[in-house]
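Researcher: We are triaging several targets before committing to wet-lab work. For this one, the compound of interest is glutathione. I'm pasting the protein sequence and the ligand SMILES. What I need is the predicted three-dimensional arrangement of the protein with the ligand bound, expressed as structure tokens, so it can go straight into our comparison scripts without reformatting.
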Amino acid sequence: MELFLNATSPYARLVRIVVLEKGLADAVKLRWCDPWSDDAQLLEANPAGRIPALITEDGTALSESLVIALYLDGMGRSEPIIPASRLSEVLRQAGLGQSLMDAAFGTVIGRKHQGKEVDDTVLGRRRWRAIHRILDRLENEISADPVSPSMTLGEISIAVALDYLSFRLTETNWPERHEKLKAWHQHVTKKESFAQTAFL
Ligand SMILES: N[C@@H](CCC(=O)N[C@@H](CS)C(=O)NCC(=O)O)C(=O)O
């Protein structure tokens, strides 16, 4: 399999962590690229021009991080990252993590192309309100310790989104404002798969 990625995308990092957690590192070749440079092979794999994209063993090109995570969960012999017994809880967390990533990434990319003033537009303010609401909700909902020793897709998604805030939007100061979430995040990100994929 081949995974198109870069070192700063939260969506690509989520998939990379899934690859490691599922014990599939040897089966997935990393194909580093710049999604903003219209890389011809990436466009062939994903006409949207976005990473991550995964070419499966049978040559199928998959896009969208959660879709790729779902595919990888069906492979490898490790514990499922979407356990059937906790389906709704894990998918709820995955959705919240993904929404946090979307609002944060939208803010970062908006600033890059239109300047920081974009934060004061209708859409910019809306994204910031979403970021704060999601953080508050996670602070209220997250249980102190993860339920199982193996990671779930929900935990990976939320933890990567929080790391992305610390990487790109430090002004959120989320660890100072959300103590329970901070402790949870410290616990979850102790895993080797997080260390190996740190944002650069
Ligand atoms: N919903 C998508 C989002 C993917 C995405 O936006 N990736 C960014 C990098 S972080 C990208 O490739 N952007 C290039 C572009 O939008 O042209 C997913 O979950 O995979």
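Researcher: Any quick observations?
Model: The chain has two domains: 2-73, 84-195.
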